[in-house]
């Protein structure tokens, strides 16, 4: 279904592409959607993004370079306290958004690019002029939730079926890594005849190269020489506690002089509308207090792009703690900024990080992470050598030029 791009299908008018995305916030999925939209726009395509929620103040700055429209934000995000029913609400919001675009939005487009929620894809089969559908699967949604009760299993059964059935309605399916491709085949049994193609996320390198560094004096205490950085949303599945637990283990491995030079910054996406973000932030703060790490940890919530780039430029190493991460854009950002990465040895980081060359891949336990962190303290030259290797790897394997060309080929092939 998803053929490998071959010859450039570049004759005739450029396609008009419409992106449909649930919530244009500051996560990895949103980063990819924006990069994809900007890439196609740079290639001459007419591009618009439609989303159920968009706040320019809580989104990547590049969103302002695109035509972004919003519909359906009045619909609920959950059915009650604790975020219950979020999946059903996401389906309803995206189906409404698709219906709005098709029948009320006065939009003309050749290809719709959808990600995260496939339930809206059947709507585009209702169009008078057939629309080609490209679905980007970050990861099967049915694997992202627990089924720890009969009621939950009963609730998820139709949702899971809809996800699998509607995903198969796409004309082209892309995934973000070989890891996700394997999980896709293993999870969606009825789609075993489909071989999704891998399109690795890329970086908007221009934004990194043009950023003016900000001073970090108000974030990093004086006298700190070894700055370690964690960048992830405030979600439990991101395993941010691993970074704190590794810091506790590190304290026992260092002399008091070296320990006093260590500082950890936990920065990440934070949305007050998301209950888990609020709860987990408080859990992490409590853990810092109980571990007596108050002087060694700084929390940043929803830091700006400039702040993030400045932190990557100034830190010793990035700690990337999620297990089985579908791809993970943070390791690419870090490596491009010549910052080594210590990551869990599973999922996407196995494809982006070269062990002992651009960083370290470790078992997801505090002992192994603290051992890797200590190497950067005992051998400060590692940052420079691994940092340079990381930047070269991003340029060679994850360049925006390769991403743009591949995506453009997939889109134009749909119209042949």
Task: Give the helices and strands, then pairings.
Elements: E1 16-21, H1 28-42, E2 46-51, E3 67-70, H2 86-103, E4 111-115, E5 132-137, H3 150-167, E6 172-175, H4 178-187, E7 197-198, H5 205-210, E8 226-231, H6 240-251, H7 256-259, E9 262-268, H8 275-290, E10 297-301, H9 305-314, E11 317-320, H10 330-336, E12 341-344, H11 349-352, E13 359-362, H12 366-378, H13 382-397, H14 400-413
Describe the overall structure.
There is one protein chain. The chain starts with 15 loop residues before the first strand and ends with a helix. 39% of the residues lie in helices and 15% in strands. The protein has two domains: 16-202 and 400-414, Glycogen Phosphorylase B (Rossmann fold); 206-398, Glycogen Phosphorylase B (Rossmann fold, 3-Layer(aba) Sandwich), CATH 3.40.50. The mean pLDDT is 91. With 416 residues, the protein is α/β, with parallel strands linked by helices. The strands form two sheets. A seven-stranded parallel sheet has the order 3-2-1-4-5-6-7, with helices on both faces. The protein has a six-stranded parallel sheet with strand order 10-9-8-11-12-13, sandwiched between helices. It is globular and about 70 Å long. The longest helix has 18 residues, at 86-103. Its main location: endoplasmic reticulum. Residues 219-392 form the Glycosyl transferase family domain. Keywords: Endoplasmic reticulum, Glycosyltransferase, Membrane, Transferase, Transmembrane, Transmembrane helix. InterPro entries: ALG2 (IPR027054), Glyco_trans_1 (IPR001296), Glyco_trans_4-like_N (IPR028098). It is a single-pass membrane protein.
